[in-house]
Design a protein that fits this description.
The chain folds into 3 domains: 61 residues, no CATH class; 90 residues, no CATH class; 108 residues, Glucose Permease (Domain IIA), CATH 2.70.70.10. It is α+β, with helices and mostly antiparallel strands and 293 residues long. The N and C termini lie far apart (133 Å). The longest helix is centred in the N-terminal third of the chain and has 34 residues.
């Protein structure tokens, strides 16, 4: 019976509980510095717990910090969102650049007396086309156009008007009155008054006299809020002493579009009115020769 008990105690899982002492001694004086009492089971538990904690801490460190992006094959979940935002910004910058390019082209066309181009956006390919617009016509539309042209083919009056009409000819310009009111000061080169002063109702809208592009929209000390529009055939119209500006530099306006509000801004103003100037080829001209107020 005693032999069986000794064989049972010699098994490995009983040996896990055998107690040992770990002693740290000075190698020269043999002085005992530290000592630990431990068993194989305690050592295995401590080592296993330490390994599990290290694995857990490493996992948290990688999953909660940018270090996870250095793992091969790992994709950032916000990567697609950032790519989408950058694509939208690039598209917006491309559109703004195209508008600025069109603005400078129109300024050049106005100075040279050429027709102004309108910007057309192709919504299918997101490309910007400046020069031409391709329109598809149905068969019925083509037949209607051909019938109408045949009816007026031998109309001499119609053909003569079409031949004589030129939208770039100054005789065919229709100047829109910028403001309905009373003229208090006329145009005078002798007195260096290069425009006319018009008095009207309070908060009355001031309108563009012709189609064109806004080249100036700002505030000055002498003339207050000023806006200027460049037109065809080297015409430039100035609108001064406004209380508010409705358009910005670079905007394209049509004749009759509101561009400002009558006011009394600037040191040279003596009351609510509009000081309107019309220039052609770099020289002031009398607005009364082109329009009525």
């Amino acid at each position: 019976m005693a032999v069986k008990k000794e064989d049972k105690k010699n098994k490995w899982y009983y040996k896990l509980r055998n107690k040992y002492r770990l002693v740290i001694m000075n190698d020269i004086t043999f002085e005992e510095r530290l000592s630990f009492r431990l068993t194989r089971l305690n050592a295995f538990v401590t080592l296993g717990t330490t390994i599990i904690l290290l694995i857990a801490l490493t996992t948290l460190l990688i999953s909660l910090t940018p270090l996870r992006e250095y793992i091969p094959g790992y994709t950032d979940v916000q990567l697609y969102q950032r790519v989408y935002e950058l694509q939208n910004k690039t598209d917006s910058l491309e559109r703004v650049f195209a508008q600025k390019d069109l603005y400078f082209r129109n300024i050049k066309s106005i100075v040279e007396g050429n027709p102004i181009m309108d910007m057309v956006i192709d919504t299918t390919t997101h490309n910007l086309n400046y020069d031409t617009i391709v329109l598809t016509r149905s068969v019925e539309d083509s037949l209607l156009r051909a019938d109408y042209e045949n009816q007026n083919k031998f109309d001499l009056y119609f053909n003569d008007n079409e031949a004589l009409y030129d939208k770039n000819n100054i005789r065919n310009f229709t100047f829109f009155s910028p403001l309905k009111g009373v003229i208090t000061t006329n145009f005078s080169l002798v007195e260096n008054h290069f425009g006319v002063d018009i008095v009207s109702k309070e908060k009355e809208n001031i309108k563009a006299v012709l189609d064109g592009a806004v080249i100036l929209s700002e505030w000055t000390v002498e003339t207050g809020y000023v806006i200027a529009v460049q037109h065809r055939q080297n015409f430039i119209s100035f609108y001064k002493h406004n209380s508010a500006l409705l358009k910005k530099a670079g905007n394209y306006v049509k004749a009759g579009d509101p561009i400002a509000v009558i006011g009394d801004s600037g040191e040279l103003s003596t009351g609510p009115h509009l000081h309107f100037e019309l220039w052609r080829n770099g020289s002031p001209v009398n607005p009364l020769d082109y329009m009525t107020f």
